[in-house]
Amino acid sequence: MAGTFLPSLLIQSKSLSRHQQAGFTLLELLIVIFIISLISAGFIKLSVGFGSATQSLENETKRLHRLLSLTAQKSILQASAIGLLIEADAYHFVSRGKSVEWVTFEGDDMLQHHQLPQGWRLELKQSDEVVPPVSVNLEEDETGKEVEQPSPAIVFYDSGETSPFQLRIYAVDIPDPFMIEVKESGEVEMHLQASKQ
């Protein structure tokens, strides 16, 4: 009798575990419904890598706009000037060094060298004249000495002022560049599709 009871008990427990695994719990369903409602309300944007080139360029312009606003505030808070070097397809933040004039900015991961995607270009204008791109030295000195960088055309001063400029971001197959403009007061403005402005 005991021999027949044990196999039937095992069969019942297996069927119960299969039955419990077959459906969703109420909590799981509520979480899925909540996420779907957030997506439909526009609070969450799904990115699957099929965004247009114009949207990518706009996102990069917005990123740089936020970084420049942050840099203007950071230079005031740290009471030291922060410079921005513009290469043809990259930008690089610098600060005043101890042994040399300008060195790579340290201490903030957001303000590091940023390479643009292939085919994208930057154009810097000051006083309506195009400023030639510079060449940044990305190699580290093994002796521990600070690696000198070129003098930046753009400087955010600890007084809140800055060198006024216009920075255009171009991309292949996009006829209109996006533009960031910084005024002498330190105010940072963004113009999307700059040539239409």
Rough outline: globular
Low-confidence stretches: none
Number of strands: 10
**Mean pLDDT across every amino acid position:** 78
Q: N-to-C SSE series?
A: HHHEEEEEEEEEE
CATH class group of the domain at 53-138 and 146-196: Alpha Beta
CATH architecture of the domain at 53-138 and 146-196: 3-Layer(bab) Sandwich
Relative helix content: 25-40%
Number of helices: 3
Structural class: alpha+beta
CATH fold label of the domain at 53-138 and 146-196: minor pseudopilin epsh fold
Q: What's the N-to-C terminus distance?
A: 90 Å
The CATH homologous superfamily of the domain at 53-138 and 146-196 is called minor pseudopilin epsh domain
Which percent range describes the beta-strand content?
15-25%
Strand count, sense and barrel status of the largest sheet are: 5 strands, antiparallel
Rg estimate, integer Å: 28 Å
Question: What features would you describe in this structure?
Answer:
By secondary structure, the chain is an alpha+beta fold. It has a domain of 137 residues: minor pseudopilin epsh fold, CATH 3.55.40.10. The chain is 32% helix and 25% strand. The protein has 3 helices and 10 strands. The strands form 2 sheets. Strands 1, 2, 3, 4 and 7 form a 5-stranded antiparallel beta sheet that branches. A 5-stranded antiparallel beta sheet has the order 6-5-8-9-10, with helices on one face. A hairpin with a 2-residue loop joins strand 5 and strand 6.
